[in-house]
Fold this sequence. Notes:
The protein is an alpha+beta fold. The chain is built from seven helices and six strands.
Amino acid sequence: xxxxxxxxxxxxxxxxxxxxxxxxxxxxxxxxxxxxxxxxxxxxxxxxxxxxxxxxxxxxxxxxxxxxxxxxxxxxxxxxxxxxxxxxxxxxxxxxxxxxxxxxxxxxxxxxxxxxxxxxxxxxxxxxxxxxxxxxxxxxxxxxxxxxxxxxxxxxxxxxxxxxxxxxxxxxxxxxxxxxxxxxxxxxxxxxxxxxxxxxxxxxxxxxxxxxxxxxxxxxx
Length: 221
């Protein structure tokens, strides 16, 4: 029964309320980042980011009662654990690697959780870190596209009448000056192919829709 002694004292209740407030704030900040990721169709969404921040806050709060070097070791293990979790969101598709941004957002969410747990002035730092993370995820990509429109590969899905048209389609895209980074068949009936390329999107789409055998085409976000 020693584990329950002093559980309902005013001091214990104050600690509980403090931790619950931090958990609530952490869940809110993590959920905001997760919402942006889920809205963008990424694998790590609202629940993943909320659970991550809640777990980080709890680990950090519990470690405060261990004292000594254990507290620092737990913080270091949190960083390692989040690294493994982030690795699970990274996928290799041909020569392209996807999921790095989602992995980085999990990393940032963990840091925000640790800042929330530390409390005091770092609560404001956690809120500011969340805002900066949302700005980076939501707007920097658009800024990159404006400043360097051809620097990032884009994906196009094309429906073809038959496989014999594929070589002609790829040649047409390359004639616009674009570089094809990869291609894969999405479905056989009807024939849908996905093409990853770098180049002028308007020129590429213009050329594709005029290619014989193309039934439909669209960009993939």
